[in-house]
Amino acid sequence: MGNPDAPIKLIEFGSITCSHCAEFAESSVPELAETFVSSGRVSFEFRNFVRDPIDITAAQLVRCAPPEAFFALTDQVMAFQPAMFENWQKAGEAQLKAIDSLPVEQRGLGIAQTAGLIDFFATRGISRDQAATCLANPAKAQELARSTEAQAKQYDITGT
Prior knowledge:
The protein has ten helices and two strands; from the N terminus they run E-H-H-E-H-H-H-H-H-H-H-H.
C-alpha cells in the first residue's frame, strides 16, 4: 500500500486468525494509511503469517479477488473473526474430523464452508464457484505455509 519508493517501509507479518492483528487492523491501519501512507512517507506491506488451516483458507480466499482488494478484504475478514470462530466451534468434532478426512484438494472448501467464509466472501464478490476453484489448489496453501516458515527463519519471527 502506498509509494513503493517511500523512505519508510513498514511490513506487518500478520495472521487473519490473530485477534491482536484484527485489533491493529481496526484501530491503527486506517490512521496509518490516512496519515502516513497517503503522504508518501511510508509504504505498508502486509505479509500473511499463517498459523492454522482457517488462516490459510482465508488468505487463499483473499487472493481470489483482484490485487487492489487485498487490504480491504484482509481487514474485513479479520473483523469477521468472532463469527468465523463461532461457526467453527459449532461444527462439532464429527464434522471437523470429516473435513480432515477429505482429499487435500477439497479440505479448503470444507474449512471455508464450516467457518462461514464462503458466504462471507460471496457478499464481497467472490462466488462459491470461484472460491471452490481457488481453494482446490493445495499448492497455493503449501506456498503460504512455506512463505511463513521462510519469513520466520529469515527475520527470526516467533509470532504475529
